[in-house]
Specification:
A hairpin with a 7-residue loop joins strand 2 (56-58) and strand 3. This protein has two domains: 11-165; 167-198, no CATH class. The longest helix has 16 residues, at 123-138. The strands form three sheets. The chain has a four-stranded antiparallel sheet, sandwiched between helices. It has helices at residues 11-19, 24-36, 38-48, 83-92, 123-138, 169-180, 182-191; strands spanning 51-52, 56-58, 66-69, 72-77, 98-103, 110-115, 152-153, 161-162. The chain is of the alpha+beta class. The radius of gyration is 19 Å and the shape is globular.
Length: 198
Amino acid sequence: MNNIPYKDIALQDVYKVITGSYFCKVTEQARRIKTRSTEVYKRFKVKNFDYVTFAGTFSYRNKDHLKRLSGLMCFDIDHTHALDALKRYIIKDKYLNAQLIFTSPGGDGLKVTIKNPHPYIEYKESYESVRAYFYRKYGIKPDSTSDIARGCLICYDPEAWILSNNKLPAELQLQKMISKNPMLQKLINTFDCELKIY
C-alpha cells in the first residue's frame, strides 16, 4: 500500500469516484475472487483499489505526518446482513451524522463516514466512543482500528449515499415522479400533507 498521498480530494469527489465506473470491473473481479479464496482476495484488494484517509490529510500516511484534520471519521462494518436496512438506519441517526456510506469492496459490509461528534477530545477516544455507540444501538462492532491515519479502500458502489443528496432512494424516485407530473404536486399541495417514505 502506497503511503505517500496522490492528491487531496473533497468528499463529493470521493462519492463521484465510487458511483462512477472507474472501479466497476475490479470490484466485480474482487468479489468473484473472494468467493474462492479470502487470502487471495485480501492481497488483490490492497493492490487494486485506491484508498482515502477520511480523518485528514497527511504528507505521509502516519499520525505524526498529519497536515490537517477533516473533522470526519470512517467506520468499517464487516460481514453484515441486511446492508440496505442498516444503511437507512444510519442515515437517519442524528448522533452519527453520516456524511458518506458505501458498500465495502467485498460486498458484505459498509464503510460509514461520519462527522466526528467529539472533535475536542483525542481522536482515538472519540472513535472508541462512537464504536461503543454502534454496539449499543445496533448490536454491531465496527473494526477496532482507531488509527487517525488509517486508509479506507474505495470501490464501485452505484448505490452509495452522500449527505448532500440528503434523500433516500425512494424519496428521490418520488421527487422524479413529482417533477414529471405537475398535477401530482398540485394534489399534494391541496392536501397540505407531509409525505413520509417507509
